[in-house]
């Protein structure tokens, strides 16, 4: 039995293309792996702890081996709980819509909370970052409404997949990655065909994941 965590970065519910593709993936996954545990972490549910000045000071104090204040300890323990929740799963599905050429801010918030030295990654002056989640797999659904590969810069640039893929590989150490893209340019007349193809890809990926 394996444990899969779906991390949702879309707030759009039934209107979300990325969540619709995630549902297709998960339906196929559950059919192929009926004994596996599948959970969802909705990053918009309000449970992500703040990671502001107190958390930043607590992080640096913890790295230096200093004693944390009561306020720092409370904030730091909240962050560590998110890290441990994330690490307790064997594999991951991420639904990642493009926002302003990058990822939604709530996903960056999640990354900033869980990306902790000695927990998600190690860093060495000679080799740089080494992610500590090697052996796990990730499936990532990327959607965009204007940007598509090959478009002119006036229609966007990809700081979404380039950023997130780098984080998975070098901060988390997850290199076994399946992607399901839906680059649905609003000015294209192939939207329905593109959506159908993306759902077919999501279904196949869920079966074989």
Can you walk me through this structure?
- With 209 residues, the chain is of the alpha/beta class.
- It has one domain: Flavodoxin domain (Rossmann fold, 3-Layer(aba) Sandwich), CATH 3.40.50.360.
- 41% of the residues lie in helices and 21% in strands.
- A hairpin with a 3-residue loop joins β4 (121-124) and β5 (128-131).
* Number of helical regions: 6
Largest sheet: 5 strands, parallel
Full CATH superfamily name: Flavodoxin domain
Please, what is the average pLDDT?
95
Task: Give, in order, the helices and strands.
Answer: EHEHHEHEEEHEH
Question: Whole-number radius of gyration?
Answer: 18 Å
- What's the number of structural domains? 1
The side-by-side strand order for the widest beta sheet comes to: 2-1-3-6-7
- Beta-strand proportion: 15-25%
Name the helicity range: 40-55%
The CATH architecture can be named as 3-Layer(aba) Sandwich
The number of distinct β-strands equals: 7
Features:
Rossmann fold, 209 residues, alpha/beta, 6 helices, five-stranded parallel beta sheet, 41% helix, two-stranded antiparallel sheet
Quick structural summary:
The chain has 209 residues and is of the alpha/beta class. The chain has 6 helices and 7 strands; from the N terminus they run βαβααβαβββαβα.
Write the layout of secondary structure elements.
Blueprint: E1 3-8, H1 17-32, E2 37-42, H2 53-63, H3 70-87, E3 91-97, H4 105-114, E4 121-124, E5 128-131, E6 137-144, H5 161-172, E7 176-183, H6 191-208
Parallel strand pairs: 1-2, 1-3, 3-6, 6-7
Antiparallel strand pairs: 4-5
Helix pairs in contact: 1-6, 2-3
